[in-house]
Specification:
Elements lengths: L7 E3 L2 E3 L6 E6 L4 E7 L3 H17 L7 H17 L1 H12 L3 H23 L5 E2 L7 E9 L2 E5 L5 H14 L3 E5 L6 H12 L7 E3 L4 H10 L5 E5 L2 H12 L4 E5 L5 E4 L7 H16 L11 E5 L3 H13 L19 H16 L3 E4 L14 E4 L6 H4 L6 E7 L2 H9 L6 E5 L3 H10 L4 E4 L18 E2 L4 H6 L2 E9 L13 H4 L1
Parallel strand pairs: 7-8, 7-10, 8-9, 10-11, 12-13, 12-17, 13-16, 15-16, 17-18
Antiparallel strand pairs: 1-2, 3-4, 5-6, 6-20, 11-19, 14-15
Length: 502
């Protein structure tokens, strides 16, 4: 921390903020500063957009053959494999997650780059449209959108960056990325790997700084063609409003309040019961619940509730908290003092509204932003903690008696990102999965995703999709090219030609 890190990259140059402003990056384990980054502003943002604009309009990357673009993405994947331990440890310290979670994140980022490399490399080119005549050649081609503004959240800074950067580059775009000001370090590291892999200068730009200035400017900037934002609902609606003036493309992923529905028949044997409880813990408490798809709403069939909640609470109390790199630690801290205070306030509100505390509910003694994994029983839809996204290790428990009631509870949310159903009845599983209004539905599982499958939500969970072919499509424009091979007069309008007059 002897000098400010030059964490802004514009047009091939690493630099400090033009204002000279810096920000300390806080280790959430002990609340001490461990790094310094540049605190960019509006002018830094404008220069980054100008660099991306020039690189798109006149630079090499949009005109690079698809095979070469795919090869570069594969080189990035190889570099991520090489630096797995270093970047995984940095993600662990920056975001407070365990080292193993950090390593898994690096692996998932590698897989995203490989997937989009293969996707564009294996495409069949233009789509031929049958015009009904041999004299017409009609095709639809896909071209890059242009300059993309990418805004990522603090909970999965590296992973979310890859979900945007990999398809943006695969499609031939240039970009400016603004990582969360709380956890920017691994995104800076990823930009370094892109440059090492040979990405042309100006194609990738990064401005570290606050959302209220850098993010807001990107959203409104007239030279930005697309903005992709992952974060909270309030900020996401501001981004959409700002983007509307220039009618740029918008993709938003705004979180969820995700149901985990457990039918009694899913727990008919000791092993099945153990699996369902274990998965409910994983759904709610991985990364201290700071996951957009966290299964924070347990909706359990009434006859199973008491036994299920008792075992869930017992195991929750045994979860080991600590620094993510320490042996045996299962769960790290919340990312910031603000997030800790937010979680404490939600729990207090729930208890005031009649929830019954079964586990956790408090900050353990000692430094840092830790909060005990918390189970709140006897919850209902009138409670804020059930309706709103907490983004902390807080699990609410609701009950149902019929399949119809279970579906109604699971869908009774403004969000619609993800959900799960647990049952041994295959027909019921299919019925409930079809009825759930959520972008991802798991049956007898929770949390896995595939880079080949689209990710995104219904309702206030956002618009657009990431990953899969649809995720690539967000970064493209479709163009129809219609060629008449035998042009002749249309004679739509009256009037004689010179030949007729003769």
């Amino acid at each position: 921390m002897t000098a400010a890190q030059q964490s802004i990259h514009v047009g091939g140059e690493w630099r400090a903020a033009l204002s000279g402003a810096t920000r300390e990056i806080i280790d959430p384990v002990d609340a001490t500063a461990f790094a310094v980054v540049a605190e960019g502003g509006v002018q830094d943002t404008d220069e980054a957009v100008a660099a991306a604009r020039a690189a798109f309009d006149d630079g090499a990357w949009p005109r690079t053959p698809v095979a070469e673009r795919a090869a570069l993405l594969r080189r990035v994947a190889a570099l991520l494999e090489r630096d797995r331990e270093r970047i995984g440890a940095l993600e662990s310290q920056d975001a407070g997650k365990t080292l193993e979670e950090g390593r898994v994140d690096v692996d998932c980022v590698r897989d995203a780059f490989l997937y989009f490399a293969d996707l564009v490399a294996n495409e069949n080119g233009a789509r031929v449209v049958d015009a009904g005549s041999d004299e017409i050649r009609s095709v639809v081609v896909h071209e890059p959108v242009g300059v993309c503004a990418l805004i990522t959240p603090w909970n999965y800074p590296l992973l979310q960056a890859s979900w945007k950067i990999a398809p943006a580059l695969a499609a031939g775009n240039t970009f400016v990325i603004k990582p969360s000001e709380i956890t920017p370090l691994t995104t800076v590291a990823l930009i370094e790997l892109l440059l090492e892999a040979g990405l042309p200068l100006g194609a990738a730009n990064i401005v570290t700084g606050p959302g209220g200035t850098v993010g807001a400017r990107l959203a409104e900037h007239p030279d930005v063609d697309l903005i992709s934002f992952t974060g909270g609902l309030v900020s996401g609606t501001k981004v959409a409003r700002a983007a509307a003036d220039s009618v740029k493309k918008v993709a938003l992923e705004l979180g969820g309040k995700n149901p985990n529905v457990v039918f009694a028949d899913a727990c008919s044997t000791p092993d099945a019961f153990d699996t369902a409880v274990d998965q409910a813990l994983n759904a709610a408490f991985i990364h201290s619940g700071q996951v957009c798809s966290a299964g924070s709403r347990l909706i359990v069939e009434e006859p199973l509730r008491d036994r299920f909640v008792a075992e869930l609470a017992r195991r929750a109390e045994l979860i080991r908290l600590g620094r993510g790199t320490d042996k045996g630690v299962e769960c790290g801290p919340l990312v910031s003092a603000a997030q800790l205070a937010r979680t404490e306030e939600y729990v207090a509100s729930a208890l005031g509204e009649g929830a019954v505390l079964r586990a956790g509910g408090e900050k353990p003694a000692g430094p840092g932003y830790f909060f005990r994994p918390t189970v709140l029983d006897r919850c209902h839809r009138g409670m804020r903690v059930v309706r709103e996204e907490v983004f902390g290790p807080v699990l609410t428990v609701e009950t149902f008696r019929t399949e119809e009631e279970a579906v109604a509870l699971a869908n009774d949310t403004e969000y619609g990102l993800a959900g799960a159903v647990w049952t041994s009845d295959g027909d019921r599983a299919r019925r409930v999965a079809a009825a759930l209004r959520h972008g991802t539905v798991w049956i007898n599982d929770f949390h896995p995703y595939l880079p080949q499958a689209e990710w995104g939500g219904f309702g206030k969970s956002g618009i657009g999709r990431e990953l899969g072919p649809g995720g690539l499509g967000e970064y493209r424009e479709a163009k129809h090219i219609y060629q008449n091979l035998a042009p002749r007069p249309v004679r739509w309008f009256a009037g004689a030609t010179e030949k007729d007059q003769a």
